[in-house]
Specification:
2 copies of one chain form a homodimer. The first copy, chain A, is of the alpha+beta class. Chain A has 11 helices and 25 strands. A 7-stranded mixed sheet of chain A has the order 7-6-21-13-14-16-8, with helices on one face. The radius of gyration of chain A is 22 Å and the shape is globular.
């Protein structure tokens, strides 16, 4: 990968290099409506301003596409128009291009400090499906939730197991999470109380760009034409609520209270240099689910945690997990093929999440229940505090990135702080 | 209940009496966009035309509320404004009111033959949750899917078990259902093939009108202020796909290919005379889920079936089930309280379904898998054809109604015909 130099000041190892250029939706004091923006270094490129300034050239772009407060209309056009859009922006930002660089009046219009905008949900989300595609995670959860049987059920290697979640409670990074209430067993008695086992789950989410009609199945080869891109996803989970409710129809209130995403949609074009082979699949899946080409993505993932006391003491967050997205058994392309294998339609803005990304070692697990083995081996924080599950005031940060230096393609971060239960 | 007479010709035992006045969204040749309509006898009352003709009087109604092609904006206002709207329409249609009756020019504008319009989805649907609230149904399915254990799991009487389903594949009555493909066990081998066990599920669905904010739990007492009304729901299910996929995270592709609703939203105001006590709950649920007042609704429900051969032979559909919605263990109010008990927000247009409505006797079961006990006791149709599950060409009709004569409040019907699998 050789990435052209930019006239924009991009810090070394920024998530948002010229190789990335992820899309988002931002609001800002003084803007009458949300704008479509692209992250670059410490700035965002304001697509609405660029369109008004005729900087987007001969892109066949309807202005209304950028005026809806979401990325839906832009990405509904499919992969090629978005690729062209992103290439045009890359061109404008290259050192050897003067169209924008030399127009100081326009630069101040179009290049907005990232610190001055507030990122919103990138898409109006349709259906949301959460998968369960890490073999290490599914094995760990199986051992804890069903200790009497095989940790992996017979379907797990035959299809990407997943379930629909609540799309209306997906929120952008930075939103606080209130400890939920629900029905839990208290000394064997079902009791409505606040969760005592609040957890995070490290995941990577995928938005659908171009939808598909009822009856149309998307092949693994064609999946790339239907996805908008990737974000980080924290699937907050109340383990005690989950334990009591989840049989036989799956998780519901244990997860529906809130889920958090990073706001920058990193395109498949951007991560293409980091596509790698997925783990070998044995048995070979049924034909519609078979992998096509390199479906895994070499995304480094990290989770860090800080307690209120750590922050008061001036201590940095402590890294509690380090793993890689490429270890997932089922890929985003196989997941999309599976969602549509029965002829179900998809809509622009549909969202699906990978399932918790866990490696095989405890320091690569993607959830606290795995790291602490349901509290048996609590984490010890630098303050001496112990953590079986999340406590009020804790803040969870997840980061993800491919590559390094000027070639780095980062997903940014998804963070959230735990507030006490309401009332 | 005493219902005023109407100047509109309403057939005896019509679902759409002056006591009902359900809301829907219709398209019609010659209309440039969908209209909000109210069913009355063989007509629909065209709310957009009535507003244009100043017939809605001093209702505080923004015209744009009716111009969005869905009921979302109208019902987002909450129960009271919709009640006033419906009362005003009832007033205009009463025999003793001449405002519309005597204006033949307006009557032809506003009263449109029901046969000339096409009903659409009433709401833009947000999240969809399917419950499992019939004790007889959950017991039957438990016996068949988990023969080794208790048919009802420990959580079943403690909370209304439910899961999120796919909102993007909910379609209006009359839409054909293609037999889905999926992964099923064929002599023990996971195989991608068309479902051989396609089934229906008789349910009643509830739309959310006034939404609720993140962190706000809706009490059973307040649920009435948050619901728009009721429809019939056919939760088509592929039992063979379900059997292989559903553990541990619940049903997904077995149901996501299509779900059908009746198009008329029958308000709580309309069914209020038919509210009755629900079955006694033992154990008493936790406080936020406890029943408030009469939460069950005395809705008669019927399912009828016809095969292609029956229709070719001029035979009427045969009734295969007759049951009553009032037998559900958990009510719509308890379900809404449960959905929000963890602080999850709700949006106008969110949809939740009761779960299959089954009585205790085989002729009151709400699905074929129960009636035929997974095919062990096939139905015999008047043509001599046998049915373990649905065959291509079969048509399923579900009807629901409260009361009779001029007081009848009917939900209309949801129907769909099975087409062969694609390709």
């Amino acid at each position: 990968v050789t990435v052209a130099a930019s006239w924009v000041d991009i810090p070394n190892d920024s998530d948002f290099t010229l190789a990335n250029l992820p899309f988002g939706i931002a609001t800002k004091h003084g803007w009458s409506s949300p704008h479509v923006v692209i992250a670059v270094g410490r700035y965002v490129f304001d697509c609405n301003a660029a369109l008004d300034s005729d900087l987007l050239g001969d892109l066949d772009l309807n202005a209304s596409t950028l005026a809806t407060g979401s990325l839906n209309e832009l990405f509904a056009q499919g992969r090629e128009p978005v690729s062209s859009f992103r290439c045009r922006v890359a061109e404008l930002l290259r050192s050897d291009n003067t169209e924008l660089q030399d127009r100081l009046d326009l630069v101040t219009e179009v290049m907005v400090p990232r610190s001055s905008v507030t990122m919103q949900l990138p898409f109006v989300i349709g259906d949301y499906v959460d998968f369960y595609s890490s073999e290490a995670h599914a094995t760990n959860l199986g051992k804890m939730f069903r200790p009497q049987g095989d940790p992996l059920l017979p379907n797990w290697k035959q299809l990407p197991v997943g379930y629909h979640g609540r799309s209306g409670t997906i929120v952008p990074s930075g939103t606080d999470v209130c400890r939920p209430r629900g029905i839990v067993l208290d000394e064997g008695i079902p009791t409505y109380s606040q969760s005592k086992m609040l957890d995070f789950e490290l995941e990577v989410g995928t938005f659908v760009g171009l939808g598909s009609a009822l009856g149309e199945s998307i092949s693994t080869a064609d999946a790339a034409n239907h996805i908008a891109g990737f974000v980080l996803f924290n699937d907050w989970t109340a383990r005690d609520i989950q334990t009591f409710e989840y049989q036989p129809l799956g998780p519901n209130l244990a997860k529906s209270f809130l889920s958090s995403i990073s706001p920058w949609v990193v395109t498949l074009d951007a991560v293409e240099p980091y596509l790698v082979h997925q783990p070998r699949q044995d048995p070979l899946p049924v034909r519609p689910l078979r992998a096509h080409g390199n479906g895994a993505i070499d995304i480094h993932l990290e989770v860090s945690l800080s307690s209120a006391l750590m922050r008061e003491s001036g201590l940095n967050p402590v890294r509690v997990s380090k793993t890689n997205f490429s270890e997932m058994y089922w890929t985003w392309a196989q997941q999309l093929a599976h969602i549509t294998a029965n002829g179900a339609s998809t809509r622009t803005g549909d969202f699906y999440a990978s399932g918790t990304v866990s490696g095989t070692e405890p320091d690569s697990y993607g959830s606290l229940i795995e790291m602490t083995w349901r509290g048996e081996r609590p984490l010890v924080l630098p303050t001496g505090e112990v953590r079986a599950f999340l406590e009020d005031g804790d803040e969870v940060n997840m980061r993800g990135w491919c590559g390094k230096g000027p070639e780095r393609v980062g997903l940014g971060k998804v963070s959230g702080r735990v507030l006490p239960a309401r009332e």
